[in-house]
Give the backbone structure.
Amino acid sequence: MGTWASRGRPARVPAPDPEPEEALDLSQLPPELLLLVLSHVPPRTLLGRCRRVCRRWRALVDGQALWLLILARDHGALLPLARSCLPPAREARPCLLGRFCERSPIGRNLIRNPCGQGSLVYSTEGLRKWMVQHGGDGWVVEENRLTVPGAPSQTCFVSSFSWCRKKQVLDLEEEGLWPELLDSGKIEICVSDWWGARHDSGCMYRLIVQLLDANQIVLDKFSAIPDPIQQWNNNVCLQVTHVFSNIKRGIRFVSFEHWGQDTQFWAGHYGARVTNSSVILQIRLS
């Protein structure tokens, strides 16, 4: 018997499996290229993860070259000041510039929870991050009666019929600054606060901002005690601002404290309405 040939398509021979690609080993890159690659990694990841990869990466993250490269690309205006204020190499602290790049303290509001945002209206939950002294019926958070421009939330802290006060103390080194930069004479501190009253009740308000050294000794102080807002005031809202220039050497903390009270002494919350508090560090242009 003859052999029958298949009239179908010839069977395909499977292609051999491709050889697995070798994983890219960044550690084999020359130092200049590795620095360039790492400079595109977010600062938080560099400090939290990349620093733990190996000794070589840790040395790069702890050093200055990587962060100067990041500053030059992303914050060019800050580079000359940061470079001029760096401590000598033998005294440099690990990740000094890294903390500065991660926390970006220049131009950012350092006050936490400036408006009571994220809390329920008529609630005390919004007082987080503040050291609080309640007077009368204490502080609560309510909605603004007028829009406050630039505020992250249109809510405010409302005081009572007896003086209510609250305060934050900002640790400037924890915010990413370092002593040589703070003592450079090139930093100014801009403080601001909004306060007002509800239409049917007047109020009184005070603001006290202090610049403190490492031992909490006062180096400079600004206080504002405006005239009280009178009853039947059309929900007036006012802003208090001040700029600390020519700051004395040694500043390490900023204490921000404000007070509020109503003028009718009514039970409940009819006193000063404070919101959008801010402490912002800027570079002196002159």
